[in-house]
């Protein structure tokens, strides 16, 4: 089944404890991205990647890192999480510009 | 910056009736794409329909159709024969212009409630 998977789906952590949210797609898509969704603010792009080893900042990259060592994987790294990074995170991927498929989301709470 | 406006925070529709969710956008670029996504209470984002700015016909996918009025810069989603499972948040999004751009800018969403 063609899909975008994210892990973990739910995470509660404490301020400053490094964490990684994994994202994987099995559709051989070149484009992948991360969004965060916050009440009243909608979805905002954090980082994106056009291909392996090619990443760039979105609208809200502060406090996040990404890497793209393989085509299928695009992990989101929070080196020192803070409470303002409590959010619902989505990974997305696409092959063409007229589609974009989202993962199931990761609910992150930073205490 | 590109902008998407969804003016209806919430809407109610009777089961089996049709409903239109409004979306207007702002861009000066002639090449862009418009998307609609559904987000049920479980949280996932489900792709519904896509309309390219150069597409001659309105996009349709099953019970979903997109009423694309380019001159008015509107891209309203029409859901025919509403079902209880259609109750969800609906987001309109626009692909940023520019060659090779994939970034989506989202509206704030409309919460649709289908009444039995």
Question: Care to describe what's here?
Answer:
- With 111 residues, chain A is mostly beta strands.
- Chain A is 0% helix and 51% strand.
- The termini of chain A are far apart.
- The model of chain A has no long low-confidence stretch (mean pLDDT 94).
- Chain B is mostly beta strands and 116 residues long.
- Chain B is built from no helices and twelve strands.
- Chain B has strands spanning 3-5, 10-14, 19-21, 24-26, 33-39, 46-52, 60-61, 64-69, 74-79, 88-95, 104-106, 110-115.
- In chain B, strands 2, 5, 6, 10, 11 and 12 form a six-stranded mixed sheet that branches.
- The radius of gyration of chain B is 14 Å and the shape is globular.
- The termini of chain B are far apart.
- The model of chain B has no long low-confidence stretch (mean pLDDT 93).
- The A-B interface holds A 31, 33, 40, 42-45, 48, 50, 58, 88, 90, 92, 94, 97-105, 107 and B 33, 35, 37, 43-47, 50, 52, 91, 93, 95, 100-104, 106-109.
Number of helices of chain A: 0
Please summarize the sheet with the most strands of chain B.
6 strands, mixed
Largest interface: A-B, 24 and 22 residues
Indicate the low-confidence ranges of chain A by residue numbers: none
> How large is the radius of gyration of chain B?
14 Å
Total beta strands of chain A: 11
Output the helix-strand order of chain A.
Answer: EEEEEEEEEEE
- The number of strands of chain B is 12
> What string gives the helices and strands of chain B in order?
EEEEEEEEEEEE
Main attributes?
heterodimer; A: 111 residues; mainly beta; 11 strands; globular; B: 116 residues; 6-stranded mixed sheet; 12 strands
């Amino acid at each position: 089944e063609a899909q975008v998977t994210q892990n973990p789906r739910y995470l509660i952590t404490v301020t400053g404890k490094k964490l990684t949210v994994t994202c994987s797609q099995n559709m051989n898509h070149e484009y992948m991205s991360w969004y965060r969704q916050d009440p009243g603010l909608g979805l905002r792009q954090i980082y994106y990647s056009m291909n392996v080893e090619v990443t760039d900042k979105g609208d809200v990259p502060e406090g996040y890192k990404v890497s793209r060592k393989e085509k299928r994987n695009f992990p989101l790294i929070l080196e020192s999480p803070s409470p303002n990074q409590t959010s619902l995170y989505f990974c997305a991927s696409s092959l063409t510009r007229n589609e974009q498929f989202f993962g199931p989301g990761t609910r992150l709470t930073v205490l | 910056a590109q902008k998407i406006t969804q003016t209806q925070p919430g809407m109610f529709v009777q089961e089996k009736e049709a409903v239109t969710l409004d979306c207007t956008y702002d861009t000066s670029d002639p090449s862009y794409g418009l998307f609609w996504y559904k987000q049920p209470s479980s949280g996932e984002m489900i792709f519904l329909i896509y309309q390219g700015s150069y597409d001659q016909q309105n996009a349709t996918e099953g019970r979903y159709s997109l009423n694309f009025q380019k001159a008015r810069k509107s891209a309203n989603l029409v859901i025919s024969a509403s079902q209880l499972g259609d109750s969800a948040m609906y987001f309109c999004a626009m692909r940023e212009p520019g060659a090779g751009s994939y970034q989506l800018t989202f509206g704030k969403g409309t919460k649709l409630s289908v009444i039995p």
